[in-house]
Amino acid sequence: MDNSVPRNSNAPFPCSCGTCGPGEVCSDQPLVDAMKVGEIQALGKIYDRHASAVYALCVQLTENHAEADRLLEEVFWKLWQRRAHLNCSLDSVLTCLLAFAARDAASRCDEKTLPNIVV
Asked: What's the pTM?
């Protein structure tokens, strides 16, 4: 029997944030709603939830840990700046963060550095 949560843009995902209990699922929508009214703590929770996945992509894209650190910071800053326009019913927060990282990394590099990135 498959107990996995279906992966689509509206579906919550199995919790790995450390604040939910076993078997509970997380949704970013309440955190997005809190960010929209200026609650910076919500950004911190989203960071805790997604930073490792975003950082892994940043390292893969930049092949440089210092540059990946800068890119990670810029990605979350961009999320905060664009918080009023986020719509988790269309895209998950993680999808937005990964797209920001890919676009920003691609804009920093020439075609020789990132030949396989489609943005």
From this structure: 0.71
Which of these, 68, 22, 59, 30, lies nearest to 46 by C-alpha position? 30
Six-digit token string for 20:
């939910």
Nearest partner of 67 among 113, 31, 27, judged by Cα: 113
Q: What are phi and psi of 13, to 5 degrees?
A: -125, 155
Are the CB atoms for 108 and 22 separated by under 8 Å?
A: no
Sign for the CA dihedral angle at 104, 105, 106, 110 comes to: positive
Helices (H), the chain: 29-36, 40-62, 65-81, 93-108
Per-residue pLDDT tens digits for 33-44: 999 999 999 999
Q: Which fold has domain 14-108?
A: Rna Polymerase Sigma Factor; Chain: A (1.10.1740)
> What integer best gives the mean pLDDT of the chain?
78
- Give CA angle at 97 (93, 102), nearest 5°: 145
